[in-house]
């Protein structure tokens, strides 16, 4: 039995197994939802992170974002749907 962590993982692979391009898509997506911080530094959203899983770039979304910021959650999940990306819920 697996434990649920409340995370959604958007993988950089389409549902039909092709690698998603551009290769830096995860960085672009997480930067798009970031905010400017002190001295011009980027402050990434605390509920959205980049990672690599099995050699594939991914974006991890904390499930609590759905309640805290439904529009942002919808933006991220719609991105995955629109681009036919593989999504895993843990």
UniProtKB/TrEMBL annotation:
For this protein, the record's Pfam families field holds: DUF3579
List the InterPro entries.
DUF3579 (IPR021969)
Tree of life domain: Bacteria
Write the protein's name. DUF3579 domain-containing protein
Naturally occurring in which organism (per UniProt): Thiohalomonas denitrificans
């Amino acid at each position: 039995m697996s434990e649920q962590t409340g995370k959604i993982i958007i993988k950089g692979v389409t549902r039909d197994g092709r690698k998603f391009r551009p290769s830096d898509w995860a960085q672009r997506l997480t930067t798009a939802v970031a905010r400017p911080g002190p001295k011009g530094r980027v402050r990434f959203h605390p509920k959205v992170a980049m990672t690599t899983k099995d050699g594939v770039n991914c974006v991890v979304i904390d499930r609590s974002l759905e309640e805290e910021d439904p529009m942002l959650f919808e933006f991220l999940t719609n991105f995955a749907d629109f681009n036919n990306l593989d999504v895993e819920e843990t």
